[in-house]
UniProtKB/TrEMBL annotation:
Pfam families: Pkinase (PF00069). This is Cyclin-dependent kinase 2 homolog. May form a complex composed of at least the catalytic subunit CRK2 and a cyclin. InterPro entries: CDK, Kinase-like_dom_sf, Prot_kinase_dom, Protein_kinase_ATP_BS, Ser/Thr_kinase_AS. Its EC number is 2.7.11.22, 2.7.11.23. Residues 12-296 form the Protein kinase domain. It is found in: Nucleus. It comes from Euplotes crassus.
Amino acid sequence: MQQFGYNPPTAYKRLNEVGDGTYGVVYKAENTQTGDIVALKKIKLDVQNEGIPSTAIREIALLREIEHENIVQLLDVVSTETQLQLIFQYMDRDLKEFIEQKKTSGNKIDNLTIKSIMCQILRGVADCHAKRILHRDIKPQNILLNDEGEVKIADFGLARAFQVPIRPYTHEVVTLYYRAPEILLSSVEYSTAVDIWSVGLVFAELYNQTPLLQGDSEIDQIFKVFSLLGHPTEEEWPGVTEMKNYKKTFPQWKPQNLAERVPGMDELGIDLLSKMLALDPAKRISADAALSHPFFDDLNQLIEEQNAEFGS
């Protein structure tokens, strides 16, 4: 378990704003004692009403339990009467910025880089799920990268621990473009498969350089999902017709060819993507199983060769 110091606010000097989290502004900052560059998430406290936001409490509590190379590390917590500062290790950019930079320059992301990014995302997700933690907001903005090629999952403001059997949860989670169909249909009983769905859509976005499913409302997002993957039946997805937001009047779409929607992805990638985007969450591949998919074989072989060379 990680140990945090409780330093005065002067221990960190803000340099510039780098983005917004679920509930606070994020700055690039310098540790005035060590000179280390860090990411500082500033959260204003509503002293008269709620005090420390529940999302901040949840993020701190969960990150105390996680220590993994593909999860952003919480280094410190700084608290005053009016402000809470969470200090994280600094990463150079998020995946959304990385994709936009490639798109603007007219360059595609090479396959080996995509495999490395996906492998690291899945390792982080697998560790969360092994510790019975749902992230519930996997998206490019919450995946961080540095210049050394390291990838870390961040922003656990919507995350929560889960137990088996799964208890009912809110469906007001996950950014719309990456929201799993069971959540869109207002299921309050969901599990690790919601994160896998989101990871699958990030996978497709690395190739397309734009979100695969861009609805402008929940119902439009449902339509985008079903128009891509086909209208589900009770045989294909038991219980789907009993969900709150399911309508018998939904158009009867036929599934599209994923390879046509994600050009540039090879057959092994399409096979993995189809397993991540299974409509029935019970049929969706797990993070551990995804890591063993043949799509990653050449990456794993390259890593083994590099390790062997380093060892010699």
